[in-house]
Amino acid sequence: MEYVQQLFEQFFGIEWGGALLILTRNLALILLIVLPLLLGVAYLTLAERKIIAYMQIRVGPNRVTFFGIPWLAGWGQPIADAVKAIMKEIIIPSGANKFLFVLAPVLTIAPALAAWAVVPFSPEIVLADINAGLLYILAMTSMGVYGIIIAGWASNSKYAFLGTMRTAAQVVSYELAMGFALVCVLMMSESLNLSDIVKGQQGGSFLNWYLIPLFPMFLVYFISGVAETNRAPFDVAEGESEIVAGFHVEYSGMAFTVFFLAEYSNMILVASLASIMFLGGWLPPIDIIPFTLIPGFIWLLLKIAFLLFCFLWFRATFPRYRYDQIMRLGWKVFIPITLAWIILLGGIMQLPPSFLNLWPLNLWFH
Amino acid sequence: MYINFQNAIFYFFATVLVCSAVGVITARNPVHAALLLVLAFFTSSGLWLLLNAEFLAITLVLVYVGAVMVLFLFVVMMLDVNLDRLREGFWKWFPFGALLALIMAAEISMVIMNEQFSLNKMPTPPLRPVDYSNTKELGRLIYTEYFYAFELAAVILLVAIIAAIALTLRHRVGRKFLDPAQQIAVKKKDRIRVVSMTSETKE
Fold first, then answer.
1. Is residue A68 scored above 90 in pLDDT?
2. pLDDT digits (tens, 9 = 90+) for A94-107
3. Could you say which of B4, B62, B74 has the minimum Cβ distance to residue A168?
4. How many whole angstroms separate alpha carbon A9 and alpha carbon A293?
5. Of A353, B37, B54, B66, which is most buried with the most CB atoms under 10 A?
6. What DSSP assignment string belongs to A191-260?
7. What is the ipTM of this complex?
8. What angle do CA A177, A178, A184 make, to 5 degrees?
9. A-chain residues near B56 (CB < 8 A)
10. Contacts of residue B71 in chain A, CB cutoff 8 Å?
11. Cross-chain CB nearest to B70 (options A20, A149, A328)
12. What residues in B contact A169, CB-CB < 8 Å?
């Protein structure tokens, strides 16, 4: 490491060398996060097809394999899909705004990947341990809607535009409920740093996780997360039976695939944030010997995997919401619940310490 | 002039900010103008981050980019803007507009050129420790020293929200609507009557 630093300082001078070294190191770390994430996204699509297939008593993709090995049948499917998407032509519709049309998929995936910068994978492993991590996450996830808006507008198509209008209203509505649910987490942990939020849930067992005192907020956050990522049953932005495919109806080839990558990496992001803020992140469910031997990173992955399974489970189970019902759920149900919970939580936190030391309040307020 | 890494970032952000701000007022298409405004907000939040004002920077993105501009674009995209009609009478009103711009520029320069704002009146802010959180500091100030001002602003906003809703809320007579609570409360026996009857034979 010191040798590399000397090399940089010789090459770029003392001041620039240090800065460029940090920049290069961070780029390498970003690649270390993004590459496994994209691999996870690829295999999430396979998991989705397989899980939904089994729920519908089908087999799902079972043909593509690596090097003809029979027991890997089906595992090559995401790779084959990716190769197919890369080979296809990107058609730009006539009358479309070319620059914005190409920019839209990029704007969708960039915030979806950028938000991962502050996600702590275990007590030590986090790219940017900033003290406004929660705010950063909210800001980044709120940027994702621009890609969809621009895609719908730039493709110069009525169906795409209808999908855009639906998404813009839906995402802005659910962001409020999501933000308020996170305010409760912030009040409990008294910190905006995601690592500190997980450390606030330490204490011996799953009873200390914020899932228990904030259970309604967990539901609100997770359902809002499903709505924010435009997943079933809130996928009116795509609505195959109503508006063909919504905002990405004019996209083909890799441009279309990038929208899909963004959707799935947003799903993984929502699942990992929900596990960090409500399910204790890297903490094992009970602090006794067989559980504590498993590294924290594995626990986080297990929690993320469970929540992702719920995403797929919802898609296989629920019919699509009607648009006015989505709006009603967001504005008239979730926002009042979260506001009431914030006031209740604030009231509890103002209780004298002698009350807060009683069981079960002493589990969460220390 | 020697440029170090931080200055390079500053000049990059500043250039992008100025260019996009100029673009906002020169772009002919209103959607392009709105998108350039988004870019301007985003780069200025980058500049604030350089000043260690992370709460303000992230809130700028969260509120203006994430919510306000989305609604703005929502409206602008649905407007059918006729550019030719907008340009009509441009030269007729040009002297008036130019006069307004000049007055504004003069006022701004009177404020900025003032001795009170010169660099020697503004000490360099002290370097904060790593765990210094200006979110916490801002929260403490708002809820203690500036409590009344903050509450007043909140009440004014609330009044504005209620006024906007009251202005657009119309109760039409004979309106048909669904009550989800009623829909959920429906039981099988309210809708279906099971009649037991003997099976019929084929004639």
1. no
2. 877 888 888 889 98
3. B74
4. 42
5. B66
6. -S-HHHHHHTT-SSBGGGSTTTTTHHHHHHHHHHHHHHTT-TTS-TTT-HHHHTTGGGTT--HHHHHHHH
7. 0.82
8. 90
9. none
10. 168, 172
11. A149
12. 74
